[in-house]
């Protein structure tokens, strides 16, 4: 198998690949397409808004000229949540309307999340203002690409003097947890985490290298 290139900045031409990666890794790290009839729903929450609102913090690795993995996020979660509501949600709300009642299907749960960007802002995470999402297609995992993507992203945050970064991952996704543990992330207790585990990394203190 050919080796993917080193990370490079995201480009608008990567949009189709970004959406594909997100949905094919969106169910506990596996393919989410059987669970969500509209394959753009998950990317509209967890991928595309970052590429649109903070493209300077979006990086991809490619193989054969097509992106096969990405890391993206925000340097300031509270500010991002505001921009999500003001700038992103109006672009996608008609296609993905909020549920009329309590969410009853996986798609309704996700549409509910889409319409509540303030859920991203948790007091327990104040010391870790940035957050990220990282995904690689299964055939390109365990080849060092994830570590290189993380290095590119964390370097960009450090250049902005960001004090810390966090992520929320589905607790059942144990391979992802092992990956982040190896990079020096630690668990952050959150009062009501639901199905997620929150992990954080301080960037203003010496720590293990991700390279």
Walk me through the topology:
Elements: E1 8-9, H1 15-24, H2 41-46, H3 48-53, E2 59-63, E3 66-74, H4 77-92, H5 106-114, E4 130-136, H6 145-159, E5 164-170, H7 174-182, E6 186-187, E7 196-202
Parallel strand pairs: 4-5
Antiparallel strand pairs: 1-2, 2-3, 3-4, 5-7, 6-7
What does this protein structure show overall?
The protein has 211 residues and is an alpha+beta fold. It has one domain: Aminopeptidase. It is 34% helix and 18% strand. The chain has seven helices and seven strands; from the N terminus they run βαααββααβαβαββ. It has helices at 15-24, 41-46, 48-53, 77-92, 106-114, 145-159, 174-182; strands spanning 8-9, 59-63, 66-74, 130-136, 164-170, 186-187, 196-202. A seven-stranded mixed beta sheet has the order 1-2-3-4-5-7-6, with helices on both faces. It is globular and about 45 Å long. The two termini are 22 Å apart. Pfam families: Acetyltransf_1. It comes from Streptomyces gougerotii. Keywords: Transferase.
Could you tell me the CATH topology label: Aminopeptidase
User: What percent of residues adopt helix (DSSP H or I)?
Assistant: 25-40%
SSE series: EHHHEEHHEHEHEE
For the residues shown, what is the average pLDDT?
92
Keywords: Transferase
Protein name: Acetyltransferase
Domain N-acetyltransferase: 5-204
GO molecular function: acyltransferase activity, transferring groups other than amino-acyl groups
């Amino acid at each position: 198998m050919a080796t993917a290139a080193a990370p490079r900045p995201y480009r608008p031409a990567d949009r189709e690949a970004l959406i594909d990666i997100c949905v094919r890794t969106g169910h506990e790290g596996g393919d989410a397409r059987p669970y969500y009839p509209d394959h753009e729903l998950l990317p509209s929450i967890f991928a595309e808004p970052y590429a649109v609102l903070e493209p300077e913090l979006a990086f991809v690795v490619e193989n054969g000229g097509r992106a096969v993995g990405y890391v993206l996020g925000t340097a300031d979660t509270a500010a991002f949540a505001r921009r999500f509501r003001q700038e992103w949600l109006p672009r996608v709300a008609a296609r993905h309307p909020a549920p009329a009642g309590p969410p009853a299907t996986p798609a309704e749960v996700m549409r509910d999340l889409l319409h509540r960007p303030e859920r991203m802002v948790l007091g327990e995470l104040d010391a870790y203002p940035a957050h990220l999402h990282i995904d690689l297609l299964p055939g390109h995992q365990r080849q060092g690409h994830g570590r290189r993507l993380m290095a590119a992203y964390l370097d960009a945050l450090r250049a902005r003097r960001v004090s810390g970064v966090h992520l929320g991952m589905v607790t059942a996704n144990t391979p992802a947890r092992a990956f982040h543990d190896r990079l020096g992330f630690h668990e952050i207790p959150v009062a009501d985490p639901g199905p997620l585990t929150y992990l954080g990394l301080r960037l203003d203190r010496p720590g293990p290298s991700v390279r």
